[in-house]
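Inverse folding, one chain.
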């Protein structure tokens, strides 16, 4: 029951109003229900289900950020860096939060933009929440940007790949993209080994999304593994310098050079021209980035003749005393003709190589079983990839012997009808240098002794090597390949380039393949000059001099003792006279 009051002139009189009593109870009940609901909600959120609010708060203020992993170094065999990573910063923005105000001009200048260019770039990304403005900035400049504390502007730590030797080893080492992933060369081939695993860190940001505290290290970055190559940086520079000078002097289209250790199969140097600087991406040209020594193929021409002679000796039909009649300087093979430069008459195997007789080579190839000839070339690696893991490595071409016609057997004897890369040719010559044992080629420095494959008899290999010394004599085709104080064995090749419908009459490849010291070879080298235009084009004139200069420097850098005793004594006496 409720009470009301009515005023009278004399006194206040208490009056009960039933409808007001029910309304009062209803309002009190509503207040109680609301209070109970609030108490329940408070208990639910703060006691029973408090993780919900924590997660929502963490979603706003906690962030997991990526920690880049250091990419492993690439070094030469002595530990000199060929590719290293340096810490840099990248600037990115969240356009939804961005406020530049009076700092816009300074900010644009630090990024290397003018204000108009910055506005244009920001307009393109206005609808995004993440956009890079500048990648791989100088850390000192990035710190100035960070000190401005501009809302919506953030820095991200990254690594930039740097190549100390520039273009000297560029074709072999390759390069990475802006995200530090391998794109060419060994950077691509060994990417999984070099790249490492990124880490994750949890950080606390304030209301303006600035980092205020490191909360937790979820996963530490795992750096990539270093790679030590078989390359000798000194020989690499020497090969690069001499090949570049030769290509320029001969006005050639391109050039390649490979140096191998025949006893271990280690690649000591590889150079190509034209080259590129992996530190300057603005000047990249696809044609300059190709490692021609590994991926391009050519017909090896007369450099294949030592293996034709070896096949003949393997057959048992020929030995060092065998005489072959080449008169009158040409021979008919079906409807085709094989010619020499002139009539050499009767030649033994040594003179065959000395004068590079096509006729004598063809006669050997036509007299032995095709299977014997093919078998030796196949064992030497022609028509098969080197399998050292380099991207795009060429396998060359060597057709099956079952389909050979007589003219194909004849032309194969002097290097037409098959194709090879510079590396494959160097590998084949390393078998002659290593007394008939072919070692697997490797790009990585190794201390273990791999087991090679015997591809020719030790006596045959040594006799071929002795014959090839005559090629480098004054009576041979490559006297310009001589190295003072050392004996040299090698073979020239001059090849007409294949064109549609046949062979060009004015485009040539000049080649020299050789080894030194010839008495106990420690180095094998192949030099190729493609389309020389300065007048000379024979391998003995354009490629052999490069071999001589590079081999001379390499033998001395590696402290390999001279084996030409008479000439070494003469040089020593001359040096003594000068002093």
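Residues assigned per position:
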């Amino acid at each position: 029951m409720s009470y009301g009051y009515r005023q009278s002139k004399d006194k206040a009189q208490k009056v009960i109003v039933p409808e007001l009593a029910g309304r009062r109870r209803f309002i009190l009940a509503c207040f109680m229900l609301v209070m109970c609901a609030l108490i329940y909600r408070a208990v639910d959120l703060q006691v029973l289900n408090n993780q919900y609010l924590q997660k929502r708060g963490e979603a706003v203020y906690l962030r997991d950020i990526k920690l880049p992993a250091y990419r492993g170094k690439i070094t030469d065999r002595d530990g000199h860096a060929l590719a290293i990573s340096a810490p840099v910063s990248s600037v990115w923005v969240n356009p939804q939060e961005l406020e530049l105000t009076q700092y816009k001009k300074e900010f644009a200048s630090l990024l290397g933009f003018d204000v108009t260019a910055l506005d244009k770039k920001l307009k393109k990304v206005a609808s995004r929440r993440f956009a890079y403005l500048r990648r791989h900035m100088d850390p000192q400049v990035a710190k100035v940007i960070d000190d401005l504390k501009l809302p919506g502007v953030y820095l991200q730590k990254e690594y930039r790949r740097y190549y100390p030797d520039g273009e000297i080893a560029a074709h072999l080492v390759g390069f990475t993209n802006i995200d530090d992933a391998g794109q060419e060369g060994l950077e691509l081939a060994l990417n999984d080994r070099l790249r490492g695993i990124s880490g994750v860190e949890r950080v606390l940001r304030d209301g303006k999304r600035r980092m205020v505290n490191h909360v937790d290290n979820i996963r530490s970055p795992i750096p990539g593994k270093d790679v030590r190559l078989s390359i000798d940086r000194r020989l690499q520079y020497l090969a690069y310098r001499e090949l570049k000078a030769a290509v320029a002097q001969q006005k050639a289209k391109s050039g390649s050079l490979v140096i191998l250790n025949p006893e271990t199969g280690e690649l000591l140097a590889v150079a190509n021209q034209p080259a590129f600087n992996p530190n300057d991406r603005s000047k990249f040209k696809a044609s300059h980035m190709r490692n021609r020594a590994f991926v391009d193929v050519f017909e090896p021409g007369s450099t294949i003749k030592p293996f034709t002679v070896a096949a003949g000796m393997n057959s048992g039909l020929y030995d060092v005393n065998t005489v072959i009649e080449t008169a009158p300087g040409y021979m008919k093979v079906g409807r085709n003709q094989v010619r020499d430069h002139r009539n050499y008459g009767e030649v033994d195997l040594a003179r065959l190589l000395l004068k590079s007789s096509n006729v004598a080579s063809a006669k050997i190839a036509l007299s032995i079983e095709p299977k014997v000839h093919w078998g030796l070339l196949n064992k030497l690696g022609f028509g098969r990839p080197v399998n050292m893991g380099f991207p795009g490595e060429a396998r060359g071409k060597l057709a099956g012997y079952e389909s050979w016609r007589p003219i194909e057997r004849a032309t194969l004897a002097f290097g037409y009808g098959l194709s090879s890369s510079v590396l494959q040719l160097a590998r084949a010559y390393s078998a002659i240098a290593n007394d008939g044992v072919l070692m697997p080629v490797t790009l990585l420095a190794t201390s273990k002794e791999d087991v090679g494959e015997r591809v020719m008899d030790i006596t045959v290999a040594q006799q071929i090597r002795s014959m090839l010394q005559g090629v480098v004599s004054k009576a041979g085709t490559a006297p310009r390949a001589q190295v003072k104080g050392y004996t040299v064995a090698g073979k020239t090749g001059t090849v007409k380039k294949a064109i549609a419908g046949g062979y060009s009459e004015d485009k040539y490849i000049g080649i020299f393949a050789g080894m030194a010291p010839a008495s106990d070879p420690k180095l094998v080298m192949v030099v190729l000059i493609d389309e020389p235009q300065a007048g000379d084009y024979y391998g003995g004139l354009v490629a052999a001099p490069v071999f001589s200069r590079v081999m001379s420097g390499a033998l001395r850098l590696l402290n390999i003792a001279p084996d030409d005793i008479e000439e070494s004594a003469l040089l020593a006496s001359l040096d003594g006279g000068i002093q």
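The longest strand covers residues 502-516. Confidence is low (pLDDT under 50) at residues 1-5, 570-579.
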